[in-house]
Design a protein that fits this description.
Blueprint lengths: L1 H33 L14 E18 L10 E2 H4 L5 E13 L3 E17 L4 E3 L2 E3 L4 E21 L3 E19 L6 E20 L4 E14 L2 E17 L2 E16 L6 E17 L1
Antiparallel strand pairs: 1-2, 1-3, 1-13, 3-4, 4-7, 5-6, 7-8, 8-9, 9-10, 10-11, 11-12, 12-13
Length: about 280
């Protein structure tokens, strides 16, 4: 009987110990739930998706010439001066970023530049097969629409730095119209083409709230009688106001050069767009 009493006492102590261990484990789990593991600081390096609403305050320069079909050389012109189109581009833009796995990033950009001009020519201009004489009223329309798809792979990535390299594809549609109203004197040139670039993209998370971001894309391509170059350079500073919202200011410079020989039409076209921008970036 005494042995049974000892056994019952030991069993009771074991049950009490088990109950205490279960209670301590539950309290520890509750403590873990109340104080979850800290998350890394939110930054462009940790974002999986981002949508940027941008307002761009740019300056545009458009120069070139369009040769007539008789083999002569067209007049070198400035679209802003000779055709009367504006040299300013104040407009909203959209940019989207997708992170693919941990090191891949896909950026999608949209740009739509449309300008109209109405001016009296102050000199003779040979524009393709049309001659505008000094004093003629010249109405013009220039448009440049572009969508960019850029993929980069980050060969360097940690909590503070990310640097990637990759390729970009630009889908471009352009049109240039110049005419003397109420006459048959009219020249309408248009083209649509894809163009590839080599891309670099980097981020420096300076602190919990601030980051510096920069990227560059460029390619100079020659195929027989056609020579083209496309480049874009961008830098910005972002302030992380909330985990999923950032504000930023930046600067963007874009250039496109095209020279066409032994074609109809042939000529030269140079476009440069540059200026500051402000944006709001929503991400997670």
């Amino acid at each position: 009987m005494r042995a049974w009493g000892y056994g019952l006492t030991l069993l009771t102590l074991a049950m009490l110990a088990g109950t205490s261990a279960v209670s301590e484990a539950a309290e520890a789990a509750e403590a873990d739930d109340a104080y979850p593991a800290p998350q890394p600081n939110a930054s462009p390096i940790t974002d999986h998706f981002a949508l940027s609403a941008i307002y761009f305050l740019g300056h545009v320069s458009t120069t070139g010439y369009v040769n007539p079909s008789n083999g002569f050389t067209g007049t070198y012109f400035s679209a802003e001066h000779d055709l009367g189109v504006t040299d300013q581009v104040y407009q909203p833009r959209i940019e989207i970023m997708f992170r693919l796995e941990e090191r891949g990033r896909l950026r999608v950009d949209f740009f739509d530049l449309r300008r109209n001009g109405d001016v009296f020519a102050d000199r003779n201009i040979q524009y393709g097969n049309v001659t505008f004489l000094a004093g003629d009223q010249v109405q013009s329309s220039l448009s440049w629409r572009q969508m960019d798809l850029t993929y980069t792979y980050s060969f360097l990535r940690n909590e503070r730095f990310e640097l990637g390299a990759g390729v970009g594809l630009s889908l471009i549609e352009a049109e240039a119209l110049a005419q003397i109203p109420a006459t048959p004197n009219r020249s309408d040139l248009s083209a649509a083409t894809p163009f590839g670039t080599i891309a670099l993209d980097g981020t420096w998370a300076i602190s919990r709230f601030w980051s510096l971001n920069a990227r560059a894309q460029y390619l100079d391509l020659s195929t027989g009688s056609i020579v083209g170059a496309l480049g874009e350079y961008h830098a910005d500073v972002q302030y992380r106001w909330r985990r999923n919202v950032a504000f930023g200011i930046g600067y963007d410079r874009f250039l496109a050069d095209l020279t066409v020989r032994d074609h109809n039409p042939s000529g030269l076209f140079d476009l440069m767009i540059r200026g500051p921008q402000a944006f709001v970036r929503v991400s997670f």
